[in-house]
Write a structure and sequence with these properties.
By secondary structure, the chain is an all-alpha fold. It is built from 13 helices and no strands.
Protein backbone atom coordinates (compact mmCIF):
# COMPACT_ATOMS: atom_id res chain seq x y z
CA UNK A 1 0.00 0.00 0.00
CA UNK A 2 1.31 3.47 -0.86
CA UNK A 3 1.21 5.82 2.13
CA UNK A 4 2.64 8.85 0.30
CA UNK A 5 0.69 12.02 1.17
CA UNK A 6 -0.82 13.63 -1.92
CA UNK A 7 -0.62 17.46 -1.93
CA UNK A 8 -4.35 17.76 -2.73
CA UNK A 9 -5.21 16.10 0.60
CA UNK A 10 -3.41 18.97 2.41
CA UNK A 11 -6.00 21.51 1.36
CA UNK A 12 -6.70 23.65 4.46
CA UNK A 13 -9.96 22.97 6.31
CA UNK A 14 -11.69 25.01 8.97
CA UNK A 15 -11.61 23.70 12.55
CA UNK A 16 -15.07 23.76 14.19
CA UNK A 17 -15.85 26.78 16.40
CA UNK A 18 -14.03 26.58 19.71
CA UNK A 19 -11.38 24.21 18.37
CA UNK A 20 -7.93 24.47 16.88
CA UNK A 21 -6.99 21.89 14.26
CA UNK A 22 -4.87 20.21 16.99
CA UNK A 23 -7.71 19.98 19.54
CA UNK A 24 -10.14 18.87 16.84
CA UNK A 25 -7.90 16.10 15.51
CA UNK A 26 -6.70 14.77 18.86
CA UNK A 27 -9.96 15.44 20.73
CA UNK A 28 -8.06 17.01 23.60
CA UNK A 29 -11.13 18.75 25.04
CA UNK A 30 -12.93 15.41 25.36
CA UNK A 31 -9.78 13.59 26.51
CA UNK A 32 -9.16 15.95 29.42
CA UNK A 33 -12.77 15.80 30.55
CA UNK A 34 -12.55 12.05 31.25
CA UNK A 35 -10.82 12.06 34.66
CA UNK A 36 -13.18 12.18 37.63
CA UNK A 37 -11.45 11.48 40.95
CA UNK A 38 -13.73 10.23 43.72
CA UNK A 39 -11.37 10.73 46.67
CA UNK A 40 -9.53 13.71 48.10
CA UNK A 41 -6.20 11.93 47.55
CA UNK A 42 -3.86 14.09 45.43
CA UNK A 43 -2.51 11.00 43.65
CA UNK A 44 -5.83 9.68 42.33
CA UNK A 45 -5.46 11.61 39.09
CA UNK A 46 -2.21 9.71 38.44
CA UNK A 47 -4.00 6.41 39.09
CA UNK A 48 -6.84 7.24 36.69
CA UNK A 49 -4.50 8.52 33.95
CA UNK A 50 -2.27 5.48 34.33
CA UNK A 51 -5.23 3.09 34.00
CA UNK A 52 -6.72 5.07 31.10
CA UNK A 53 -3.40 5.10 29.23
CA UNK A 54 -3.19 1.32 29.73
CA UNK A 55 -6.71 0.99 28.32
CA UNK A 56 -5.66 2.96 25.22
CA UNK A 57 -2.57 0.84 24.70
CA UNK A 58 -4.51 -2.42 25.07
CA UNK A 59 -6.94 -1.21 22.41
CA UNK A 60 -4.02 -0.21 20.20
CA UNK A 61 -2.47 -3.66 20.62
CA UNK A 62 -5.81 -5.30 19.75
CA UNK A 63 -6.00 -3.33 16.51
CA UNK A 64 -2.41 -4.17 15.61
CA UNK A 65 -2.85 -7.88 16.29
CA UNK A 66 -6.04 -7.97 14.21
CA UNK A 67 -4.17 -6.26 11.36
CA UNK A 68 -1.34 -8.80 11.65
CA UNK A 69 -3.87 -11.65 11.58
CA UNK A 70 -5.32 -10.31 8.31
CA UNK A 71 -1.80 -10.13 6.88
CA UNK A 72 -1.01 -13.69 7.98
CA UNK A 73 -4.24 -14.93 6.42
CA UNK A 74 -3.08 -13.34 3.16
CA UNK A 75 0.35 -14.98 3.70
CA UNK A 76 1.95 -11.52 3.83
CA UNK A 77 4.62 -12.56 6.33
CA UNK A 78 6.80 -9.46 5.98
CA UNK A 79 3.77 -7.20 6.53
CA UNK A 80 2.65 -9.21 9.57
CA UNK A 81 6.16 -9.02 11.10
CA UNK A 82 6.26 -5.25 10.60
CA UNK A 83 2.85 -4.86 12.27
CA UNK A 84 3.84 -7.13 15.16
CA UNK A 85 7.06 -5.15 15.72
CA UNK A 86 4.75 -2.25 16.58
CA UNK A 87 3.07 -4.43 19.23
CA UNK A 88 6.53 -5.02 20.74
CA UNK A 89 7.10 -1.25 20.73
CA UNK A 90 3.73 -0.48 22.37
CA UNK A 91 4.54 -2.73 25.32
CA UNK A 92 7.39 -0.40 26.34
CA UNK A 93 5.27 2.67 27.22
CA UNK A 94 2.45 0.41 28.46
CA UNK A 95 4.77 -1.25 30.97
CA UNK A 96 6.32 2.11 31.90
CA UNK A 97 2.90 3.33 33.15
CA UNK A 98 3.62 1.44 36.38
CA UNK A 99 6.27 4.06 37.24
CA UNK A 100 3.54 6.67 37.48
CA UNK A 101 1.93 4.90 40.43
CA UNK A 102 5.02 3.29 41.95
CA UNK A 103 4.93 5.90 44.75
CA UNK A 104 1.81 4.30 46.22
CA UNK A 105 1.82 2.75 49.67
CA UNK A 106 -1.12 0.72 51.03
CA UNK A 107 -2.36 3.88 52.76
CA UNK A 108 -2.46 5.77 49.44
CA UNK A 109 -4.23 2.96 47.60
CA UNK A 110 -6.83 2.38 50.29
CA UNK A 111 -7.57 6.12 50.54
CA UNK A 112 -8.60 5.95 46.87
CA UNK A 113 -10.24 2.51 46.73
CA UNK A 114 -12.34 3.17 49.84
CA UNK A 115 -14.10 5.93 47.87
CA UNK A 116 -14.56 3.96 44.64
CA UNK A 117 -16.89 1.29 46.08
CA UNK A 118 -19.44 3.69 47.61
CA UNK A 119 -19.66 5.67 44.33
CA UNK A 120 -19.39 2.94 41.65
CA UNK A 121 -19.88 -0.44 43.40
CA UNK A 122 -17.56 -3.40 43.73
CA UNK A 123 -15.02 -3.15 40.92
CA UNK A 124 -12.22 -5.32 39.60
CA UNK A 125 -9.98 -4.80 36.59
CA UNK A 126 -11.35 -8.16 35.38
CA UNK A 127 -14.30 -6.03 34.24
CA UNK A 128 -12.00 -4.40 31.67
CA UNK A 129 -12.78 -5.74 28.17
CA UNK A 130 -9.69 -4.43 26.34
CA UNK A 131 -7.28 -6.49 28.44
CA UNK A 132 -9.43 -9.61 28.04
CA UNK A 133 -9.74 -9.21 24.28
CA UNK A 134 -5.98 -8.75 24.00
CA UNK A 135 -5.46 -11.89 26.10
CA UNK A 136 -7.85 -13.87 23.88
CA UNK A 137 -6.00 -12.62 20.80
CA UNK A 138 -2.74 -13.78 22.38
CA UNK A 139 -4.30 -17.25 22.58
CA UNK A 140 -5.09 -17.51 26.29
CA UNK A 141 -8.74 -18.52 26.04
CA UNK A 142 -10.61 -18.64 29.34
CA UNK A 143 -14.36 -18.38 28.84
CA UNK A 144 -15.07 -17.94 32.55
CA UNK A 145 -14.02 -14.28 32.36
CA UNK A 146 -17.07 -13.49 30.21
CA UNK A 147 -19.26 -13.47 33.33
CA UNK A 148 -17.95 -10.01 34.22
CA UNK A 149 -19.48 -8.53 31.06
CA UNK A 150 -23.08 -9.65 31.53
CA UNK A 151 -24.04 -6.08 32.57
CA UNK A 152 -22.39 -4.84 29.32
CA UNK A 153 -24.12 -6.96 26.61
CA UNK A 154 -22.33 -5.37 23.63
CA UNK A 155 -18.93 -6.09 25.20
CA UNK A 156 -20.06 -9.60 26.22
CA UNK A 157 -20.94 -10.23 22.56
CA UNK A 158 -17.67 -8.76 21.32
CA UNK A 159 -15.65 -10.91 23.73
CA UNK A 160 -17.70 -14.06 23.00
CA UNK A 161 -16.85 -13.55 19.33
CA UNK A 162 -13.16 -12.99 20.15
CA UNK A 163 -13.19 -16.15 22.28
CA UNK A 164 -14.64 -18.23 19.42
CA UNK A 165 -12.33 -16.83 16.72
CA UNK A 166 -8.73 -17.87 15.95
CA UNK A 167 -6.06 -16.19 18.05
CA UNK A 168 -2.87 -14.72 16.63
CA UNK A 169 -1.12 -18.02 17.39
CA UNK A 170 -3.83 -19.98 15.54
CA UNK A 171 -3.19 -17.79 12.49
CA UNK A 172 0.57 -18.28 12.83
CA UNK A 173 0.11 -22.08 12.89
CA UNK A 174 -2.23 -21.93 9.88
CA UNK A 175 0.36 -19.87 8.00
CA UNK A 176 3.12 -22.37 8.92
CA UNK A 177 0.90 -25.17 7.67
CA UNK A 178 0.35 -23.40 4.32
CA UNK A 179 4.13 -23.01 4.08
CA UNK A 180 4.44 -26.79 4.16
CA UNK A 181 5.23 -27.41 7.83
CA UNK A 182 3.61 -30.46 9.40
CA UNK A 183 1.23 -28.71 11.78
CA UNK A 184 -1.10 -31.46 13.01
CA UNK A 185 -4.78 -31.22 12.06
CA UNK A 186 -6.08 -31.02 15.67
CA UNK A 187 -3.99 -27.86 16.20
CA UNK A 188 -5.55 -26.25 13.12
CA UNK A 189 -9.11 -27.49 13.07
CA UNK A 190 -10.39 -27.12 16.59
CA UNK A 191 -12.87 -25.30 18.78
CA UNK A 192 -11.04 -21.98 19.14
CA UNK A 193 -13.06 -21.03 22.21
CA UNK A 194 -11.38 -23.84 24.18
CA UNK A 195 -7.96 -23.44 25.82
CA UNK A 196 -5.15 -24.39 23.43
CA UNK A 197 -3.44 -27.71 24.21
CA UNK A 198 0.30 -27.70 23.43
CA UNK A 199 1.34 -30.37 20.96
CA UNK A 200 4.72 -32.11 20.47
CA UNK A 201 4.29 -31.96 16.69
CA UNK A 202 4.01 -28.14 16.87
CA UNK A 203 7.18 -28.05 18.98
CA UNK A 204 8.87 -29.96 16.18
CA UNK A 205 7.63 -27.40 13.66
CA UNK A 206 9.33 -24.60 15.63
CA UNK A 207 12.47 -26.73 15.92
CA UNK A 208 12.49 -27.10 12.13
CA UNK A 209 11.90 -23.37 11.62
CA UNK A 210 14.96 -22.57 13.75
CA UNK A 211 17.17 -25.55 12.84
CA UNK A 212 19.22 -23.71 10.21
CA UNK A 213 19.92 -19.99 10.83
CA UNK A 214 20.06 -19.36 7.07
CA UNK A 215 16.79 -21.08 6.22
CA UNK A 216 13.31 -19.77 7.04
CA UNK A 217 14.81 -16.43 8.14
CA UNK A 218 11.49 -14.57 7.93
CA UNK A 219 9.73 -17.24 9.98
CA UNK A 220 12.48 -17.06 12.58
CA UNK A 221 11.96 -13.31 12.68
CA UNK A 222 8.25 -13.96 13.23
CA UNK A 223 9.10 -16.37 16.04
CA UNK A 224 11.41 -13.84 17.72
CA UNK A 225 8.82 -11.09 17.40
CA UNK A 226 6.22 -13.34 19.03
CA UNK A 227 8.74 -14.10 21.79
CA UNK A 228 9.21 -10.34 22.32
CA UNK A 229 5.44 -9.85 22.52
CA UNK A 230 5.10 -12.67 25.05
CA UNK A 231 7.92 -11.12 27.10
CA UNK A 232 6.27 -7.69 27.02
CA UNK A 233 2.97 -9.20 28.16
CA UNK A 234 4.59 -11.25 30.94
CA UNK A 235 6.63 -8.22 32.06
CA UNK A 236 3.36 -6.27 32.49
CA UNK A 237 1.95 -9.11 34.59
CA UNK A 238 5.09 -9.21 36.73
CA UNK A 239 4.98 -5.43 37.31
CA UNK A 240 1.28 -5.71 38.19
CA UNK A 241 1.99 -8.50 40.67
CA UNK A 242 4.78 -6.48 42.30
CA UNK A 243 2.54 -3.40 42.50
CA UNK A 244 -0.09 -5.58 44.17
CA UNK A 245 2.44 -6.96 46.63
CA UNK A 246 3.60 -3.41 47.34
CA UNK A 247 0.24 -1.75 47.87
CA UNK A 248 -2.10 -4.52 48.87
CA UNK A 249 -0.11 -7.32 50.50
CA UNK A 250 -2.06 -10.45 51.40
CA UNK A 251 -5.46 -8.77 51.76
CA UNK A 252 -8.48 -10.52 50.28
CA UNK A 253 -9.46 -9.02 46.91
CA UNK A 254 -12.47 -9.19 44.60
CA UNK A 255 -13.13 -12.92 45.00
CA UNK A 256 -12.59 -12.88 48.74
CA UNK A 257 -9.32 -14.80 48.35
CA UNK A 258 -5.90 -13.20 48.67
CA UNK A 259 -5.26 -11.09 45.58
CA UNK A 260 -1.70 -12.37 45.24
CA UNK A 261 -2.84 -16.00 45.54
CA UNK A 262 -5.31 -15.33 42.69
CA UNK A 263 -2.72 -13.63 40.52
CA UNK A 264 0.24 -16.00 41.01
CA UNK A 265 -1.04 -18.93 38.87
CA UNK A 266 -1.78 -16.52 36.01
CA UNK A 267 1.96 -15.83 35.79
CA UNK A 268 2.33 -19.21 34.09
CA UNK A 269 -0.03 -18.20 31.29
CA UNK A 270 2.66 -17.52 28.68
CA UNK A 271 1.48 -16.96 25.09
CA UNK A 272 2.66 -19.18 22.19
CA UNK A 273 3.60 -22.23 24.33
CA UNK A 274 5.56 -24.40 21.89
CA UNK A 275 7.61 -21.43 20.73
CA UNK A 276 9.07 -21.56 24.27
CA UNK A 277 9.11 -25.28 25.01
CA UNK A 278 10.83 -26.04 21.68
CA UNK A 279 13.84 -24.05 22.88
CA UNK A 280 14.84 -26.99 25.05
CA UNK A 281 15.98 -28.80 21.94
CA UNK A 282 16.47 -26.22 19.16
CA UNK A 283 20.06 -26.52 17.92
CA UNK A 284 22.48 -29.37 18.36
CA UNK A 285 24.13 -29.73 21.76
CA UNK A 286 27.94 -30.27 21.49
CA UNK A 287 28.79 -33.98 21.78
CA UNK A 288 30.73 -33.35 24.99
CA UNK A 289 28.29 -30.90 26.56
CA UNK A 290 27.89 -32.07 30.18
CA UNK A 291 24.46 -30.44 30.43
CA UNK A 292 23.11 -32.57 27.59
CA UNK A 293 23.79 -35.81 29.46
CA UNK A 294 20.69 -37.56 30.78
CA UNK A 295 18.25 -35.06 29.28
CA UNK A 296 16.53 -37.34 26.84
CA UNK A 297 14.22 -38.94 29.37
CA UNK A 298 13.63 -35.76 31.35
CA UNK A 299 11.72 -33.65 28.84
CA UNK A 300 8.07 -33.03 29.39
CA UNK A 301 7.26 -32.76 25.70
CA UNK A 302 9.10 -33.29 22.43
CA UNK A 303 12.38 -35.09 21.89
CA UNK A 304 14.79 -35.22 18.98
CA UNK A 305 13.87 -37.58 16.25
C1 LIG B 1 -1.42 -1.14 42.37
C2 LIG B 1 -2.61 -1.48 42.75
C3 LIG B 1 -3.32 -2.69 42.21
C4 LIG B 1 -3.70 -3.75 42.93
C5 LIG B 1 -3.52 -3.96 44.43
C6 LIG B 1 -4.33 -4.68 42.01
C7 LIG B 1 -4.84 -5.90 42.38
C8 LIG B 1 -5.39 -6.82 41.53
C9 LIG B 1 -5.92 -8.09 41.92
C10 LIG B 1 -5.97 -8.61 43.35
C11 LIG B 1 -6.35 -8.72 40.81
C12 LIG B 1 -7.02 -10.12 40.73
C13 LIG B 1 -8.49 -9.98 40.49
C14 LIG B 1 -9.18 -9.25 41.61
O1 LIG B 1 -9.19 -9.73 42.73
O2 LIG B 1 -9.64 -8.11 41.32
C15 LIG B 1 -6.07 -7.84 39.69
C16 LIG B 1 -6.31 -8.16 38.39
C17 LIG B 1 -6.05 -7.30 37.34
N1 LIG B 1 -5.62 -5.99 37.43
FE1 LIG B 1 -4.97 -5.07 39.08
N2 LIG B 1 -4.30 -4.15 40.76
C18 LIG B 1 -3.71 -2.92 40.83
C19 LIG B 1 -3.51 -2.04 39.78
C20 LIG B 1 -3.92 -2.26 38.50
C21 LIG B 1 -3.79 -1.29 37.43
C22 LIG B 1 -3.22 0.12 37.54
C23 LIG B 1 -4.24 -1.90 36.32
C24 LIG B 1 -4.30 -1.29 34.95
C25 LIG B 1 -5.40 -0.82 34.47
C26 LIG B 1 -4.68 -3.24 36.68
C27 LIG B 1 -5.20 -4.18 35.82
C28 LIG B 1 -5.53 -5.48 36.17
C29 LIG B 1 -5.89 -6.51 35.21
C30 LIG B 1 -5.93 -6.36 33.71
C31 LIG B 1 -6.20 -7.65 35.94
C32 LIG B 1 -6.53 -9.04 35.38
C33 LIG B 1 -5.23 -9.84 35.35
C34 LIG B 1 -5.34 -11.21 34.71
O3 LIG B 1 -6.44 -11.65 34.35
O4 LIG B 1 -4.28 -11.86 34.56
N3 LIG B 1 -4.46 -3.42 38.02
N4 LIG B 1 -5.49 -6.70 40.16
Amino acid sequence: MNHTVKPASLAPAEAPAGHTPYSDWLQTELLHSLQHPVSAHPGEHAWIVSAQVSELYWMLIIREIQAAQAQLRADDLAGACRTLRRVVAHHEPLNATWRSIAWMTPVDLLAILSCVGPKYGKDTALQGWTFRQMVYLLGIKQGEHLQHFLPQPHRWQQLSKALAEPSLYDDVLAHLSRQGFAVPAPALDRDFSMPYTPDQAVEKVWRDVYADPDQHRELQQLGETLADIAEGFCAWKHLHLMATRRTFGARPAYFGTEGIAWLLPTMNEIPFPELWSARGFIGDAPAVCPHARGQQGGREMGRRD
